[in-house]
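ok so I'm stuck.
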Amino acid sequence: MQDFDIRPIPEEEIYRAQCYIDQIAKPLGAMGKLETLAARLAALQDTLQPSLSPREHFVFAADHGIETEGVSKSPREVTHQVVYSMLRGGAGICFLCRQHDFALHIVDVGVDHEFPLEGTALIHRKIRRGTRSFLHESAMTEEEVDRAISIGVVSVDEAVERGCKLLSFGEMGIANTSTSALWMYYLTDLPLEECVGRGSGLDYEGVQHKLAILRQAVDNYRGPVDAEAILRYFGGYEMVVTVGAMLRAAERRVAFLVDGFIMTACLLMARALYPAVTDYAFYGHAGDEAGHARLLRYLGADPILRLGMRLGEGTGAICAFPILDSAARMLREMASFTTSGVTDYVSSTE
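replied:
not stuck anymore, here's the structure
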């Protein structure tokens, strides 16, 4: 796996931005969480005039071998069906990207389907037609991990070359909540049952079956438990690509929005490899998948929204964008006490 040079955002830079925010014509702390978001954005971009335009959203799509064990309510063919829906502009992520002016990129990195090579906007970077079942063997090879990380890196580099100032990532892959649950289990030491949820809509019996399969996969595993080994053995192509993309975004000092359970599990894995990556992450929302709230608490995350969403695709992250945009606009557009003609009622005495 390639190396990344990710520098933490210095606390003094965040403090300097907050000092500027305190000079905006308002009571101290009156803009609440917008101030916290704005200070980090300013420090991250090294400017008191942060910009979030242009912005881009990537959906990475792939299938998972563990799907054959009945861990998902939805069958594997749903993955490519949803990809076609995205390409037609009819999926949930599509209207949100249109609404909030995100360039949308759909990338096939491992879907078990042969898409037409021409005639659609699909980006073709398929590694293999789905991973292997980690119930019996490693889902990915080392070479496939390297390819997946590289796809994430290239995706971010291309976006940065286009001038992108904000990135967001989403996924499409039936059974990827199973991979997310096992990454969470191994990297947090939380009980497995607290990491496993309904996914695309399992009932109680379905969740219990999913838990039993994942517990058996854990029992069958005899390898090391370091992050790279867990990433490879239980990974999904779209998730490892996302890990690479998050790490490259942080290396290039580009802020990115984090979506729901699966994308937060990717950030957890990226953090296990390079802890400073979280300095560049903005948590979009707290989703309705069982493990997501626990994972956010483990990361010490303060999500922007709480809407009970669990669609995936990056929808919750894009919904949170207007709040982050408001934080940036506060810095760019609000007057200071010196320029507004308003008496400085923060420092003045009664």
